[in-house]
Amino acid sequence: MGVTLNPEVWRIDNLELTVRLILAIVLGGLVGLERELGGHSAGFRTHILVCLGSAAIMLLSMYGFSEYAAEPNVRIDPARLAAQVISGIGFLGAGTILRTGLTISGLTTAASLWVVAAVGLSVGAGFYYGASISAFLVVISLFFLNKVEKIFSRAKKDRSITFILQRRINSLQQIVTSMNESGIKIYKITIENEEAADPSVEPLIIRMNVKLKKTKAFDEALIKLAGIEGVLRLETAGDAL
To answer: Which of 52, 152, 172, 229 is the most buried (most CB within 10 A)?
Structure first.
């Protein structure tokens, strides 16, 4: 007994197609709005374009070849192009990830682009509820869980501080005392010698890896450290949210 194929399954009217594309713009824009407000590299327009493009590709995969659906030797696979979107979106996400010293930023934005691509594919396939609830949960995660993450990560913030000191002035003890008072815990110290153009200065390079207990007072602590006698210059780098 043969199976009767219904070619109408692979057809969609213009109104339904328009609704899906507009919904993709709305849901992608909601996620992108949070990234835009946070000043991230991939913001409002980028997320809209990714979501809209994913929805358009899904629509193409499902309905773009409907005229060939009735052909006996043609097999339509709606998931084929969708799979390429999921793997291909990685290059765009990778472009938002930056590393500067100890700082790595852009991971959350890269993840949001990947999720928005999934939302766009869901909208294109007509999976409205799944797409809507996914976009809603992403927005909740970015807006609210980011605040919770900051609270729990305050005690885990790592920083690297480099001091350029005058060798003849004993500043190290004052630096350590000041850092302890500011809630900065030192867990590694590296001392390097540097030849100076002025022999009377004889700079000494001290690199410290530290953990912060009071992140809000870190800027004030740096100003205090820079004012210690014998400190010619200091530089800092650390993890970013």
So the answer is: 52
